[in-house]
Amino acid sequence: MFNEIISPDLSDLPPETRKFHAAVREYARDEVAPKALELDLQEAEDFDWEIVQKGHDIGLTRAVIPKEYGGLGVGVLGVAVAMEELAAACPAVALIFGATMLGQTPILLSGDPRLQARFLPIFGGDQVALACNAVAEHEAGTDLVIPQNAVHARIVTTARRDGDEYVINGQKRFCTNGKVADFASIYANIEGYEGATGLTGFIVPLDAEGVTRGIVADKMGYRACLGSELHFDNVRIPVENMIGGEAEGVAISTAQGNMARSTVAAISTGIARNALEHAVEYCGQRVQGGKLLHEHQFTAGKLATMTANVDAARLLYRRAADLVDNQLPAPEYEPAVAKLFADRVAIETAGMAVSLMGANGFVREYGAEKILRDSYGTRIFEGTPEALSLAVTDCLYREEDDL
């Protein structure tokens, strides 16, 4: 697909960012898109290391890492425009790299040069390395990321200080890359704190004694990336692996989410763009009532709404990403709004594409049904609509209180 009119205009971005985007676009078009259906049909535990290695080779595993640690340093905006391109080909492949960046983000936010020097350079080698982020639990999801809910969190992974080490026990769920990552950024509650009020971040190498990689979720979409459980049984890690200080995990996780939401909105935008491209191609070939589908007023109205929404979603995520790159601390409102809008646009646009394609939209070989299944994924991670609505509303009333 990759319709040039629907594709983003990046003429206002720095040359380095445009060069990175061009490499990602070529990789998405030539390597990822042709394999998207094959990747979707594979078994839940299958993982295509070859396609990931090719993404690593163009810098996708180190895009957000500063140059002094072997990264590209393209910033959140550079990552976001790359995520749109990847998601337009296959959002699951985009998420493999996005989840790696998410696992790297707490290290970047820590401001700890020792932690950064130990864990960031591994992504600059010839061999691909991946990371993951471990937050969700069997009994705790949003309670771990909404500060006012922390006291209500149940059965949370714990960390106990023992001399120069922390001992971690618990279980995490839905860890994208958990089955294949080199390390995880995890959040555990310091023993003695109620609920998750003592939530603290740690870097845990996944080859550490006591770490078990659990089952891979058999998902309806995003099948090329593996979401698995991680089990921690008396896992000992040095104090130096703590991110920030004790009980600072909620603040770090919040900042991490504010940074990530614009890139997740970009993935949603890529999904919507892919749905639009499928619909444009189909409606430009299919004849009904003696006319091409796009010549019918009702169809034209749908296509116009779809393209307007894709453009609007792109503008929102680009504004949010630009602010994240240039504002400290990273803003909460703009990334939340961008994701809230783009997630809805992805689902609605995918649904419209299936509708316009009729029975063919329901058939696997045409690709639209995969897009529809994938469109629901981004609605869940980095904030459901319900959680985002609370964040946005909190910002609105916080502004009012400041007047």
UniProtKB/TrEMBL annotation:
InterPro entries: Acyl-CoA_Oxase/DH_mid-dom, Acyl-CoA_Oxase/DH_mid-dom_sf, AcylCo_DH-like_C, AcylCo_DH/oxidase_C, AcylCoA_DH/ox_N, AcylCoA_DH/ox_N_sf, AcylCoA_DH/oxidase_NM_dom_sf. Its cofactor is FAD. Residues 248-388 form the Acyl-CoA dehydrogenase/oxidase C-terminal domain. One of its GO terms (molecular function) is oxidoreductase activity. Its EC number is 1.-.-.-. Keywords: FAD, Flavoprotein, Oxidoreductase. Belongs to the acyl-CoA dehydrogenase family. Residues 15-121 form the Acyl-CoA dehydrogenase/oxidase N-terminal domain. Residues 132-235 form the Acyl-CoA oxidase/dehydrogenase middle domain. This is Acyl-CoA dehydrogenase family protein. SUPFAM superfamilies: Acyl-CoA dehydrogenase C-terminal domain-like, Acyl-CoA dehydrogenase NM domain-like.
